[in-house]
Known about the structure:
Four copies of one chain form a homotetramer. In chain A, 25% of the residues lie in helices and 23% in strands. Chain A is an alpha+beta fold and 358 residues long. Chain A contains seven helices and 19 strands. In chain A, the strands form six sheets. The first copy, chain A, has a five-stranded antiparallel sheet, covered by helices on one side. In chain A, strands 10-9-11-17-12 form a five-stranded antiparallel sheet. Chain A has a three-stranded antiparallel sheet with strand order 8-18-19, with no helix packed on it. In chain A, a hairpin with a 6-residue loop joins strand 2 and strand 3 (21-27). Chain A has one domain: Chorismate synthase AroC (Chorismate synthase, AroC fold). The mean pLDDT of chain A is 95. At the A-B interface, strand 1, helix 2, helix 5, strand 12 and helix 6 of A face strand 1, helix 2, helix 5, strand 12 and helix 6 of B. Strand 12 of chain A pairs antiparallel with strand 12 of chain B, so a sheet runs across the interface.
Amino acid sequence: MFNSFGNILQLTSFGESHGKAIGGVLDGFPAGISIDLDFIQNELNRRKPGQSKITTARKEADSVEFLSGIFDGKSTGTPIGFLVWNQNHHSNDYNNLKDIYRPSHADFTYQQKYGIRDYKGGGRSSARETISRVIAGALAKLALQELTIDIKAYTAQVGSIKLEKNYTEYDLSTIENNPVRCPDADKAKEMEELIFKTKGEGDTIGGIITCVIKNCPIGLGEPVYGKLHAALGNAMLSINAVKGFEYGCGFQNLHQKGSQQNDIFYNNNGVISTKTNNSGGIQGGISNGQDIYFNVAFKPVATLLMEQPTVTTQGEEVLLTARGRHDSCVLPRAVPIVEAMSALTLLDYYLINKTTKL
Amino acid sequence: MFNSFGNILQLTSFGESHGKAIGGVLDGFPAGISIDLDFIQNELNRRKPGQSKITTARKEADSVEFLSGIFDGKSTGTPIGFLVWNQNHHSNDYNNLKDIYRPSHADFTYQQKYGIRDYKGGGRSSARETISRVIAGALAKLALQELTIDIKAYTAQVGSIKLEKNYTEYDLSTIENNPVRCPDADKAKEMEELIFKTKGEGDTIGGIITCVIKNCPIGLGEPVYGKLHAALGNAMLSINAVKGFEYGCGFQNLHQKGSQQNDIFYNNNGVISTKTNNSGGIQGGISNGQDIYFNVAFKPVATLLMEQPTVTTQGEEVLLTARGRHDSCVLPRAVPIVEAMSALTLLDYYLINKTTKL
Amino acid sequence: MFNSFGNILQLTSFGESHGKAIGGVLDGFPAGISIDLDFIQNELNRRKPGQSKITTARKEADSVEFLSGIFDGKSTGTPIGFLVWNQNHHSNDYNNLKDIYRPSHADFTYQQKYGIRDYKGGGRSSARETISRVIAGALAKLALQELTIDIKAYTAQVGSIKLEKNYTEYDLSTIENNPVRCPDADKAKEMEELIFKTKGEGDTIGGIITCVIKNCPIGLGEPVYGKLHAALGNAMLSINAVKGFEYGCGFQNLHQKGSQQNDIFYNNNGVISTKTNNSGGIQGGISNGQDIYFNVAFKPVATLLMEQPTVTTQGEEVLLTARGRHDSCVLPRAVPIVEAMSALTLLDYYLINKTTKL
Amino acid sequence: MFNSFGNILQLTSFGESHGKAIGGVLDGFPAGISIDLDFIQNELNRRKPGQSKITTARKEADSVEFLSGIFDGKSTGTPIGFLVWNQNHHSNDYNNLKDIYRPSHADFTYQQKYGIRDYKGGGRSSARETISRVIAGALAKLALQELTIDIKAYTAQVGSIKLEKNYTEYDLSTIENNPVRCPDADKAKEMEELIFKTKGEGDTIGGIITCVIKNCPIGLGEPVYGKLHAALGNAMLSINAVKGFEYGCGFQNLHQKGSQQNDIFYNNNGVISTKTNNSGGIQGGISNGQDIYFNVAFKPVATLLMEQPTVTTQGEEVLLTARGRHDSCVLPRAVPIVEAMSALTLLDYYLINKTTKL
């Protein structure tokens, strides 16, 4: 129930950071979609550790293996099972964490909830779980491509360094040109330096990812408890380290009055459109055909390469000695995860919307 | 499916603004809870229009009628059906909206999605639907009281006027002392004046509601797609006019490093606790026993008492003449709605958590 | 969760036998369907007590009131709330049952499960709950009519009196010609006499209802855990007093070999069809375009008009004195319930099937 | 959605007969249960092809591999991913079926529904999918053992050969003593001979499996749409080749009156019990502490080792030449599947029942 995401299109995932494999089952995927395996692996590579000097130095092949649901290169409508083998699943690197609760990690809450936990690399609470999301999201993107729906996310802020301009003023096709995944080359450079410096200090830094969905058909989203933005918000808040979600004006421009924020309808050569898009492409929970855009706040990740005080499972106060290889800023690698969760949500709501009329 | 909220505890709601009634069914409510009908009606009164000079002048009795699920003053474990009759359901006040799309309302998207819409007072998209949430939430609060879980929300910002201090520095028992529902009496006065002034201009204004949950047991929340904060975020984003959700540090303090934000565990006389609470009471998606707190951003409502350009359903550009009685700021009346959705979420996840072990 | 039926199309019901009202919410009903209120009330009348001398003498108006989701005579796509007021909800007729467990009723299990129960007329366990099913089913039938899908149920067996012939040999349009709802007039007469005689003895009798679905499109049903026959079986087994479900050959003809039961495909003037229909219109869980037919077994109802030994809630052995007005055979009034649950299932799976392809 | 089974405890399965692997994810399994891997493999062996001369001669190792959710020999509360590799997944044995619809198989309905199908060995419609059920069911049995709930199924009828006596008159611990899995050694011999003879004819034969659940706690089952017997019926009807389900008196004894079938309560040394158990251990949809028992009807499987007429996907009438190795009677191997689905259902409803009270 709670390791599944979505309604008609439903991803069920499994796997621990240092277990045998991370994988999932994507159910409800439409039949007859051509499956471009290279595209999917490439999406996964965008998430992979070790892809640049600002990500963790840990290397894992993270090669996806499909087990079902694809036949003669096409989806069959049956569930698509897949997995990625973990390469260091016999690791004993984490034995020192067996009896220690790392600050701001899930060690304490898992232990209290379940009475048992896989302490190796965070077990199920590790962001390695997002591998399943990226694979399923890549499948969803393939279906959305047939509908010409386009999803692009980018790093909009790292620490205090933030893009000043709105997404409409950037060329989003340039996002992959730098390791930060930021459409402003100068800011990207600054962000990269900040991340690199933070890494050198053994510290971590957070920021904001912006996501833009273009060409979304009118009518996606269910009016009360299935509002499209609530579904997107839920999707984003399920990603590790995410602390906030806003769409359209969000927390911004609260000084503005309704008369300043209302999006005026006009007749754009026979098509009803809006002069502004403060609504963020969604009105009454339903897409209105304008661009959907939203921001996702990520906290600095909790794993530091410096000593921190903490307690043992027995409540003894101790110093946690840092070790291992970790990202000091997750945003560059989180960009494909934000896109993947958006794609899963959009395709799900596209399918749901097909049932509105007989 | 999409007019239902929750998992084990599930509210299904129905009703249009100017239909016969607004109501719902609360299923999965635990058996044996004493039902204090006065408490429930009082919660509903907190949401009622016309309760002060800063809310809409529209008067509706909004009296709850229970139809099932309660016997001899206690819940029986069977679904609790309830409704509130609409008093002006034969109103023809809205006939002028039949062929017009109001800016930033759901008129356009409903028409496109369904090919038909109840145009009277916004139909299903009206915030009158939240009546069901407040009633169901009041029931949930009665159960949470037995668990000593306490939920309090308050208006933290209206337009540019915002509380400077953290929730910990206010006496939250004073919230009902002013019509804005703000624990800072001076700020409340300023907010009230701003709302009153905005109303006079025929305009509207948004802001932020903060919610604080105290005494939440450790262990609520499911680790991956049922994270407690994602459930709360989804709940909040389902409320009309909500544009953003953040918990813990949220979008704030992104300049801080991990070493500044990590919450250090310590042994507090035999109880493991954290020295700070930047996590907002949730770690790895699971409550850790500290206070849960979060912010909800509301846009200025779209209904203005001034003329606005727009289009008809046929795409003709026209001027929308304003009339009716409306709130110029929804936050004071949204405070009990935020609490209600929090209560439904908490009780649901409390029940879910009971299934973690045999 | 468990007072809801269906997936995309979802009925949530509430109400106790002697509470204020019985009602429900039908969510996911397609927009734009013309709502024939007379048709719906007529379906409800088919279920009503007191309609003939073989049903209970209890008279209730059972008049449906719609509260939402219908506008200008059409469904709007928003949830359809409805209720039927109970006329004797202040009845104290049942006070004698407060401390007694009636044999083969739900009194004992409800008390054990919930620690509390509404003992008046069986509370939630009363078949009065099926009012909601018939109303929602009538709505579903209106949508299915637009698809020319036809559902007809009839009484096929009462006690030992059973129809000898297959459904194909009867004129199903004659079902309403007799109070038993049986397409064989002679057998109907015999059944009626048996029911009348049983009633005179203060006893009850069960039997079998057969249901036939014609003109079902090919492709309804999901292959593994959503097989169409499993959904129908689940629907039927949720009806009070039902003890068994079989479709196609079912429990019959188990002496036959595969070579006798296999349905041979042939080319019927360009349409692929089967020469026989032992499969009951469903292969691999998916409708194949042939007639769907199934049988539902009903036990004799447990409420007898004769003295029975039993125990009190305190375990004291006592004699239960019979009183009240009850059906001695539920099958005639269960025919519309079987049809209603079939209609809800078919429409739900029709909508689900729309999501199979992009 | 439809490749998932259960509510709190949820099995999601994937895999085609001749794809790479069959597998699944069991979510919601309680934390802290000791996982006996030998027990699980043994359950899988009971389902395995080639285990006796009356099952298919096809040999597959069917060795289960767990991928997650188990740590230090115990369940952790996170999803348990598992798979069984298919050994002949590159097989071209089935190329002759690419363009042919086998009678009474799912070939035709899959093709019509999805527009594409994996024709190798029936793809997703193959009973090989039940591997996932048996593995997940074995896990559920481990949890139920801690609750001392016992589930035993057996072959009660093959063709016309049926057990004459009630389950109470057999020693159910003897079921594994013969390859038919029948507690009556003489009948087992007869059944075995019939199966062997049928096999020799290239034909197939069906029958009935009876399942008995002892020591089920009082209170499992939800009163309206989650009746325990409806959940069990749905579970059974989801198994390949199942055509009917009955519990308690079911389709039997319809000649009996209510006065003969009612189960009279009595005080059994301080415990309220029933003198008879015609109810089959469930009243009002809720377990009453007596034995639960039900019957499941299986049709003769559709795969025959004899020539049959049929059509191609183009509608051309052809003769289907038989080949391969197949079971002529699935009942012996279906016994562990019936038990597995029962175990999943019981554990799910046990967990659900924990949420009835605060």
